Structure formats: structure tokens, C-alpha cells
């Protein structure tokens, strides 16, 4: 099912988790998450499912720049050069989650949930995503509208729906 179709159906996060879990279990892969703006909401959505310990390996909440460096090995100069909300940092977070876990698949999010912190270049609602599937890292940027809760929930939803899509692609390649 295409990504847009999944979003139109507005699958609750736990349904996306269940779909991801099926792909992960079938392939004996583990998932790790690296979250900044969502503060662990993706890990919470995953671990809401009973039996998630068989496919969810760990979650990193790397809210501060120091945590991104210390927990995930993101180069501090990369953060300084591009900002924490950027494609290179999302990519490094996804890679770092794999490097610092036993997982074969990871997802990372870094964004501006608001209500403050936005700039003209990176307004509130800007979120960068990174997904690592083995050696392949895919990134994506989205702008979500609404208040802090809405931005964070949309981030969780997009991260998981896109994860399902990427797992489906990987399985058929």
C-alpha cells in the first residue's frame, strides 16, 4: 500500500507499529529508535504492543545536542554546522542508533515541535527523519501544522508509516 494511501487512512500509530512488527518478526530484525522532538513517543507507541520485546531492541531519547553526541555518536561539529534539525543530523542519528544497539533497523527524528524555537529557515513543525535498514539510510523532511502535541503526533505517525513502507520495499527487493 503506498505511503499516501496509508496516511489517508490515518492509521493509528499502534496499527503502524503492528504492521512494522510483522515485517520485523518475519525477517528476524530488531528496531532501535533515536528520538529528539518526540521524546520517546515512538518507542512508547512500539512498546504499547504486547510482545514488542521480540522486535523492539531499544530507544534513545536524545533531546539535547549533547545527548545526540554522547548516546548516538553524532559529531558535534555536524550539529554546529547544520543545526540539530537537519538532514545530516537525522542521518547520523539513524546510523548511531544502529551502531549503538543490536538492531538491524532504526528510525530517527529531530524537529521543531514548538511553540517556540522555529526560525524562518526551520519553522515550527519542521521535522527531519532518518531510517536505517542495514547499510541503506533514507531521509525525509516534513512540515507539520498545529500545536506541539499535533506536531509530535504527526511525527510519530509519519515515522511509523514510512517505516512500514520501507520494510515492505526491503522485503521485496
From TrEMBL:
<dbReference type="InterPro" id="IPR008136">
    <property type="entry name" value="CinA_C"/>
</dbReference>
<dbReference type="Pfam" id="PF02464">
    <property type="entry name" value="CinA"/>
</dbReference>
<dbReference type="InterPro" id="IPR036653">
    <property type="entry name" value="CinA-like_C"/>
</dbReference>
<protein>
    <recommendedName>
        <fullName>CinA C-terminal domain-containing protein</fullName>
    </recommendedName>
</protein>
<feature type="domain" description="CinA C-terminal">
    <location>
        <begin position="21"/>
        <end position="166"/>
    </location>
</feature>
Amino acid at each position: 500500500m503506498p505511503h499516501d494511501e496509508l496516511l489517508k487512512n490515518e492509521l493509528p500509530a499502534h496499527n503502524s507499529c503492528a504492521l512494522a512488527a510483522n515485517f520485523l518478526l518475519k525477517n528476524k530484525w530488531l528496531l532501535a529508535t533515536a528520538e529528539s522532538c518526540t521524546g520517546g513517543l515512538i518507542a512508547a507507541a512500539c512498546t504499547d504492543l504486547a510482545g514488542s520485546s521480540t522486535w523492539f531492541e531499544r530507544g534513545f531519547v536524545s533531546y539535547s545536542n549533547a545527548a545526540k553526541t554522547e548516546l548516538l555518536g553524532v559529531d558535534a561539529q555536524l550539529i554546529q554546522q547544520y543545526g540539530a534539525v537537519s538532514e545530516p543530523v537525522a542521518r547520523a542519528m539513524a546510523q548511531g542508533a544502529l551502531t549503538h544497539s543490536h538492531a538491524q533497523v532504526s528510525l530517527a527524528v529531530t524537529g521543531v515541535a514548538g511553540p517556540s524555537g522555529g526560525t524562518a529557515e526551520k519553522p515550527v513543525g519542521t521535522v527531519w527523519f532518518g531510517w536505517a535498514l542495514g547499510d541503506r539510510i533514507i531521509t525525509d523532511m516534513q512540515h507539520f501544522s498545529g500545536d506541539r502535541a499535533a506536531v509530535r503526533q504527526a511525527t510519530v505517525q509519519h515515522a511509523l508509516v514510512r517505516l512500514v513502507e520501507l520494510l515492505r520495499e526491503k522485503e521485496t527487493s
